[in-house]
Amino acid sequence: MTVNTLFSPRIALVGNPNCGKTALFNRLTGARQKVANYAGVTIERKEGKFTAPGGRHWHVLDLPGTYSLQAITPDEKITEEVITGQRANEALPDAILCVVDATNLKRGLRLALELKNLGLPLVLAVNMMDVAKKREIHIDIHELQKALGIPVVETIAIATKGVDGLLSELESLAQTLKQSTEAKRIEFKHQSPEEIQAAANAILKASVQANAIHDNRLPLSFRIDNWILHPVFGPLIFASLMFLVFQAVFTWAQPPMDFIKDSMEHVGHLIESTLPEGMLQGLLVKGVIGGAGSVLVFLPQIVILFFFILVMEDSGYLPRAAFLLDRIMGKVGLSGRAFIPLLSSFACAIPGIMATRTIQNPRDRLVTIMIAPLMTCSARLPVYALIIAAFIPERTVFGILSLQGLVLFVLYIAGIVSAMLVALVFKRLWGKAEKHPLMLELPDYRWPNLRNLALGLWERIKIFTTRVGTIILALMILLWFLSSFPGAPDNAPYPAIYYSFAGYLGRLLEYVFAPIGFNWQICIALVPGLAAREVAVAALGTVYALSQTGEELSQSLEPLISHSWSLPTALSLLAWYVFAPQCIATLSVVKRETNTLRYPVMMAGYLFSLAYIASLITYQVAKFLTGA
Amino acid sequence: MSTLSTNSLSNMTLNCLNVGESAMVSYVSAQDQTTHSDESRSGDLSDIARRLKELGFVQGEEVKILHKGYFGGEPLAVRVGQSTFALRNFEAGLIGITKIGNTTLGSD
Predict the structure, then answer these.
(1) CA torsion, ordered A333, A335, A339, A342, to nearest 10 deg
(2) Residue numbers of the domain that contains A564
(3) pLDDT for A176-213, tens place per residue?
(4) What is the rounded average pLDDT for all residues in chain A?
(5) Model ipTM value
(6) Do A72 and B72 touch (CB under 8 A)?
(7) Cβ distance of B81 and A106 shorter than 8 Å
(8) Which chain A residue has its CA at the smallest distance from B86's CA?
């Protein structure tokens, strides 16, 4: 035999959704995972490595969950293509590990029988054996192995020792594998669902004995669902949960956000006091620390938000939330699962867009990504606050409502309403005539596993910080460069930024933005505002040559702009920021999540057009009404 | 199609059931009652019908409606075998059933 002990086999994990496949993947590979997208689609590709006790290295590919090998959804299509060797740039795996849920063996067996038809080396892992034993479901592993004719092992993915049996089975499998280099494609005949069902039933009859539990109460999941899916209490529970999440994202995140902000400023001051004034100091303080810091500050919000999302996903609540919202969200062509990403986008569109990974249907996911920036993110608040305080009088309307608060509310609503309209348009553009099936599984509730939670959180943190550390940082430095060079001439009547590339660009933009009432100061501030929306406030400070920062800056800017801008200009800028296409960080995350330049370009284009049209209407109408 | 002839035996489909009612699956058909004339759709519907079978909605299986959405009674939470699925009305409309009254499904 030509057994090479160094041969590192590639094994693909295939299983039904909710069978604990990802938990098993996490158990095997730990944090040694690489998450990317499959080329050209918004479907997550998870690959990992582990070293077996015998020293052999394994490559593991966690394929999207599927109910059968005759794919319907695009993510199932990936699974089908990879294990038949038909996907470009994906080598056919050396072996397949089929994961089935011991408490739902019938459905898992159907998939296992289909996989057996492929003829690839196959091992069956009967997962969640602990739960099955508790429910008095007795599975005769030997009988199962005999009936199926493939190695069968029991696993408990959430227990440390739960995969020991699997590891030794994989080792003996590896002894029989040969390293193949040629590309292979597998053709196989699909069996009818009825045939497979009959075969699965026969195997089940021989190998499984389920004792009826003498317990008259409904199973726990049923009892929980009686509340969670209740016509009245269900939405109430959901609303309270969302309120809790929203509160947590805004209030719990505040101390760590302040800490990050303060530390960034502290480091900035430190550099200012040690380095001589000049280019390097400016680059480090304003470009690197100021720029990347203004995005990094959102990290605590991202961590808290994803903590809740992962708990809801792991426990089985997320599909219930989708169930409750399916009808409402469906009206505008969104999936019920789009709700949470969109809610997250009120904090920041970046975690919102990252959270769209819980939406399985790629088309639904794309529409959700496209409308996420229309949710008023917290970075827009400083801009809104400045303009509202400067132009909207502190008055009470209808006896109880503050006019300023009302304007802010209208701005939020304007974002939501336009998001729904845009979703409808995308539904028309991308939706096929066919009816959209739901077929959403509501799995049994389970306690979230801490290890899986930690791995999931770690992964989001990694994605976000590498983004901030690479593309976003580079763009920030570029923006700093544009705003600082070339320098101002001596005795210049205007602030230095006026003479920079950004200033030049801003003054050019003034021609474009004159019909919507933007003066050159606003136009210039919009350029560094590309970094993050709230940076526009600081940039306005620079344009008006103010030296304060933070709260003080807003206070001194307020009277200044209320005197030099007209009301139509201010309202027009508010309307602009409802759509506000200028957030490079968001666009760069869209690029990462969709794996193509097409969608960020499309997003910037449609947001820009909407912003321009909205501002034009606002400005011209306001000008007409105020008689200016 | 051969499955069409079975339609005439029973025109009761899963979406006709109320919350708490159980039934036996008698057929799964790719013919939606409302879209007979639309040829282009039948291909997609046969995919959905096949998938429903793959999920466990096969002849002779017991199904039970556990919950319904609060607007327009959609979606439906349906118990079949050891799983619960949320279906929209049109998907449930592809599953033909024969009523068997209240049973113990879900309490074992």
Answers:
(1) -60
(2) 485-626
(3) 887 766 667 777 778 888 888 888 889 988 888 876 65
(4) 84
(5) 0.81
(6) no
(7) yes
(8) A440
Q: What is the pTM of this model?
A: 0.80
How, if at all, do strands A440-441 and B62-71 pair? unpaired
* Maximum C-alpha span of chain A: 94
A400 found inside a domain: no
Residue ending a domain, choose from A210, A230, A251:
A210
The CA distance from A460 to the nearest CA of chain B, in Å, is 29
Q: Which residues are bridge partners to B62 per DSSP?
A: B24
Residue numbers in A near B65 (CB within 8 A): none
CATH code, A120 = 3.40.50.300
Of A110, A115, A113, A145, whose CA–CA distance to A13 is shortest?
A: A115
Strands A440-441 and B83-87: antiparallel
- Mean pLDDT of the A525-552 span: 73
Tell me if residue A406 falls in helix, strand or coil: helix
Count the domains in chain A: 2
Would the pLDDT of A372 be above 90? Answer: yes
* A38 occurs within a structural domain: yes
How far A76 CA sits from the closest chain B CA (Å)?
Answer: 12
Sheet with A10-15, edge to edge strand ranges: A33-37, A44-51, A57-62, A10-15, A95-101, A122-127, A152-154
Beta bridge partners of B68: B76
**Is residue A345 one of the residues assigned to a domain?**
no
Sorted by where each starts, the structural domains of chain B and their CATH numbers stand as: 3-101 (2.30.30.90)
> Please, are residues A109 and A205 in contact by the beta-carbon 8 Å criterion?
no
Give the sign of the dihedral formed by CA A164, CA A314, CA A115, CA A74. negative
A294 assigned to some structural domain: no
pLDDT tens digits for range A81-137: 999 988 888 888 999 999 999 988 988 999 999 999 888 999 999 999 988 888 888
Interface test mutation site (partner B, options A68, A434, A446, max chain B beta carbons within 10 A): A434
Burial A597-611 (b: 16+ CB within 10 A, else e): eebbeebbebbeebb
Q: How far is B77 from chain A (nearest CA, A)?
A: 8
Chain B residues touching chain A at CB-CB below 8 Å: 32, 40-41, 44-45, 47-48, 50-56, 58-59, 66-72, 74-75, 77, 81-88, 90-91, 106-108
Q: Which residues on B lie below 8 Å from A212 (Cβ)?
A: 108
Q: What is the chain B residue with the closest CA to A18? A: B83
- Per-residue pLDDT tens over the stretch A14-50: 999 888 898 999 999 987 888 877 776 767 789 999 9
| Nearest CA-CA distance, residue A443 and chain B, Å | 7
Nearest Cα to Cα of residue A379 among A309, A301, A457, A303: A301
Q: To 10 degrees, the CA torsion angle through A475, A480, A484, A486?
A: -10
Closest Cα partner for A397 from A406, A408, A384? A406
Contact across the interface for B75 and A440, Cβ inside 8 Å: yes
Cross-chain residue pair A197–B53, CB shorter than 8 Å? yes
Asked if residue B107 lies in contact with residue B79, where contact means CB atoms within 8 angstroms, the answer is no
Residue A112: per-residue pLDDT? 94
Last residue of a domain, one of A210, A239, A271: A210
Nearest residue of B to residue A336 by CA position?
A: B75
A218 touches chain B (CB under 8 A): yes
A213 contacts B91? CB cut-off 8 A: no
Distance between B51 CA and the closest CA of chain A, angstroms: 8
Residue A610's pLDDT is 94
Helix H or strand E segment including A281: helix A279-282
Smallest Cβ–Cβ distance between A72 and the set B51, B66, B108 belongs to B51
Beta strands (DSSP E) in A83-169 are 95-101, 122-127, 137-139, 152-154
